[in-house]
Write a structure and sequence with these properties.
The complex is a heterodimer of chains A (about 350) and B (about 200). Chain A is an all-alpha fold and about 350 residues long. Chain A is built from 10 helices and 1 strand; from the N terminus they run E-H-H-H-H-H-H-H-H-H-H. Chain A has one domain: Formate dehydrogenase/DMSO reductase domain (Formate dehydrogenase/DMSO reductase fold), CATH 1.20.1630. In chain A, helix 8 packs antiparallel against helix 9. Chain A is globular, with a radius of gyration of 20 Å. Chain B has 6 helices and 10 strands. Chain B is globular and about 55 Å long. Helix content of chain B is about 20%, strand content about 25%. Classes of the chains: A mainly alpha (about 350), B alpha+beta (about 200).
Chain lengths: ~350, ~200
């Protein structure tokens, strides 16, 4: 039966690049906090040298993430109303409290870690719980939106948490290889630990993406269309080339065959960070791009939001260098001290 | 028996619709809808193979769902119910997060760059409260649109729904729309993934 749409309306996509950036930075921050807590809370001594640098980076990535969220609002000055006009049925309402508690716990934890105070363990536990919640929440926010096959899966929160962990490992490797002194991660002898963990976590990420997409592909017509759009449609380059080949396969191959060279680990980290950002982009944009009726793909507002995204990424980079110094001067201690407290 | 609260809804008789788009235009004028956005619009498609063809039409607006995903996801309860169960956005509370825009399964919402908040069809509630019909109903040249109280068995809309086979859009989602169609064509109810085109 022939069918030609002669009149339909172009709809505007709801979420743009600043939401992608927020998901990227929130996942990254959660992953960094969890890596920091591996030694302080879970007692894995192998990761002890990374405890301080990674929690400083967790703060440095969280702040621009929150900024991205606020500047993305149509009414940024009303952001605080999220905390007193609570809607229990809204996942975003839960998220604002998760972010608030996580942010405070992260700040207090970092302070006690620098002071080498034993309270660090308690705040590390609170922070770790809310870091997991934050990592999952960014996926869960999308998972409960009806009628978007790429989003409607309980695997999405898990994928977002795991890819946040990948980004965190990658940022640490990148910092260690190329700007160890500036990020005050010098002498943090943890390549072994990073190396071993990265292989497993990236493998898990690849499996999660593959199984999620296979389920979406097979479940219905809309699902098949959204996966086809990722593989060979408008998101073909950003998904197949940037996310999968450059951002997932290549870093894994480099880590597997690099014989534990620090430079190779750092380069693999850079590619993984690009890959995780691309993953967030493909899932947010790709998930909302296909029409619910008719044939027209959704419109995305461009320009200004992309410029703000780049600006906030630069802010993130600057903060990564500044935050350890700030805590050094507040507490009068160095970042790579021999912590006795834990 | 106590009188039930009003439940405003609409019936659109597609057998009468001529596809003139007067509803689209009057809605824009009545509600000052910004350029590029619509509270009300009409989809049209040509169906069949020559010479056996027909033009199918589907006027669209907010479905005023009884179980509205937009109301559920609003983090600050800016989206709420007004008279007759109509879903409205409180412009003084909305933070402009656009979660409701992504949650709407009918594309009925948009982010108004002019207001910095979400915006949508409210069945011209100001007009209704003043005793008038929604603008699209008043202006429809073919009398294809009917507005009224779905809880009142004597209302025109209730009678039309009782006496005709009616459909709602995407019933499988369980949103329970309050906009009913008579003579809805399947071709316009979903997306045509085989012929996707990029917009501007």
């Amino acid at each position: 039966m022939g069918l030609t749409f002669v009149y339909q309306v172009e709809h505007h996509a709801a979420f743009g690049p600043l939401i992608v950036l927020y998901f990227f930075l929130a996942g990254l921050s959660a992953g960094l906090f969890l890596i920091s807590s591996l030694s302080t809370v879970f007692g894995l001594q192998k990761f002890k040298p990374l405890a301080k640098p990674s929690c400083a980076m967790a703060l440095a990535t969280l702040i621009p993430g929150l900024l991205a969220l606020v500047v993305d609002l149509g009414q940024p000055l009303r952001a605080m109303t999220l905390f007193f006009r609570v809607n229990p049925s809204s996942v975003m309402s839960w998220g604002s409290f998760i972010l608030l508690i996580y942010g405070l716990a992260c700040l207090v934890y970092t302070y006690y870690l620098w002071r080498e105070d034993s309270k660090v363990k308690f705040w590390g536990k609170i922070g770790a719980i809310f870091a997991v919640a934050l990592g999952l929440y960014t996926g869960f926010l999308l998972a409960v939106v009806p009628g978007r096959p790429l989003w409607n899966s309980a695997l999405l929160p898990v994928l977002f948490l795991v890819s946040g962990w990948v980004a965190a490992l990658s940022l640490l490797s990148l910092a260690q290889s190329f700007f160890a002194k500036a990020a005050q991660i010098e002498g943090a002898d943890a390549e072994e630990a990073l190396h071993g963990m990265k292989i497993w976590i990236v493998t898990l990420e690849i499996l999660l993406v593959a199984f999620h997409l296979l389920a979406v592909l097979m479940v219905n017509d809309a699902g098949r269309a959204v996966v086809q759009n990722l593989i060979s449609g408008t998101k073909g380059v950003s998904f197949m080339l940037i996310q999968v080949v450059i951002g997932m396969i290549l870093p894994l191959v480099i880590v597997l065959f690099s014989k534990r060279s620090v430079t190779a680990l750092g380069f693999s980290g850079l590619l993984s960070l690009i890959g995780v950002f691309a993953l967030r982009y493909n899932f947010v944009f790709g998930g909302e791009e296909l029409p619910q009726a008719g044939t027209l793909l959704y419109l995305f507002e461009g320009g200004r939001a992309w410029i703000l995204t780049v600006v906030l990424l630069v802010v993130t980079a600057v903060l990564i260098f500044l935050v350890p110094g700030i805590f050094n001067s507040i507490t009068g201690r160095r970042v790579t001290g021999s912590g006795k407290a834990f | 028996m106590p009188e039930k609260e009003a439940h405003y809804g609409m019936v659109i008789d597609l057998r009468r619709c001529v596809g003139c788009h007067a509803c689209t235009v009057v809605c824009k004028m009545e509600n000052s809808v910004p350029e590029g956005f619509f509270r009300s619009w009409v989809m049209e498609a040509d169906k069949g193979n020559f010479p056996n063809v027909t033009r199918v039409k589907l006027p669209r607006l907010c479905n005023q769902c009884e179980k509205a995903p937009c109301e559920q996801v609003c983090p600050v309860k800016a989206t709420h119910r007004d008279e007759g169960g109509v879903v409205v956005v409180d412009e003084k509370k909305c933070i402009g997060c656009r979660y409701c825009v992504s949650a709407c399964t009918y594309d009925a919402r948009y982010f108004s760059p002019k207001k910095g908040t979400a915006d949508k069809c409210d069945l011209c509630l100001d007009r209704v409260k003043a005793g008038m019909m929604p603008a699209c109903v008043s202006t429809c040249i073919a009398h294809a649109r009917f507005f009224g109280d779905l809880n009142d068995p004597q209302s025109e809309v209730s009678q039309l729904i009782s006496e005709n086979p009616c459909q709602v859009l995407r019933p499988e989602l369980g949103t329970k729309p309050s906009v009913y169609y008579i003579g809805l064509d399947e071709a316009l109810t979903g997306a045509d993934y085989a012929n996707l085109v990029k917009g501007r």
